[in-house]
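Quick one:
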Amino acid sequence: MLKPRYEVLIGMILAAALSRLIPHPPNFAPVGALALFGGAQFADRRLAFLVPLAAMLLSDFCIGLYSHMEWVYGSFALITCMGLWLRSHRSGWGIAGASLTASTLFFLITNFGVWVGSTTTYAKGLGGLVSCYVAAIPFFGNTLLSDALYCLVLFGGLALLEQRFPILRERPTRIQA
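Output:
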C-alpha cells in the first residue's frame, strides 16, 4: 500500500500528463514541469524518474508516438535531475529558475534532435542548426508559459494540500549515528 503522499503525487502527475490529451496550442504541455516536480517531490529517486516517465509514456501512447521521442525523453531525464537538485533548493525563486532552465534545456535538446534527424529540412552544419533553432522560436514561448503554469499548479497545489492535510507533508529522514 502506498503512503498518502505518494498517492497524491502520482495522481497529480497523472492528471498533468493526461492534460496533454486536451486540445492545446503547440508546445503548451506539462513536460518540463512534470519532470521537475517528480524529481523534487519523490524521496525515492527511482520513483522520481519512473512515475513522471510512465505518465508521459502513457499520454504518448494515447496521443500517438512521434519522431524524435528519444530527444524528448532524454531532456525529460535531465530535467528530472534538475528536480533532484531542486529538492534542496525549494523556494519560489528556485522553482521559477528551474522552470526557466527546464524550458530552455528542452528547447535546445529537442530542436538539436530535430536537426540531427533531419534528412531534407535542415542542412548539416552550423547554418542548418541555426535555421532549426530559429524556426522553433515561435514555439518556445508556449514552452516557457506552460512550464511556468504547470509548475505553479503542481508545486503550489501540493503546498496547499500539505497545509490542509499534514499527513501529506514529507517526513524528514533521520540520520542514524
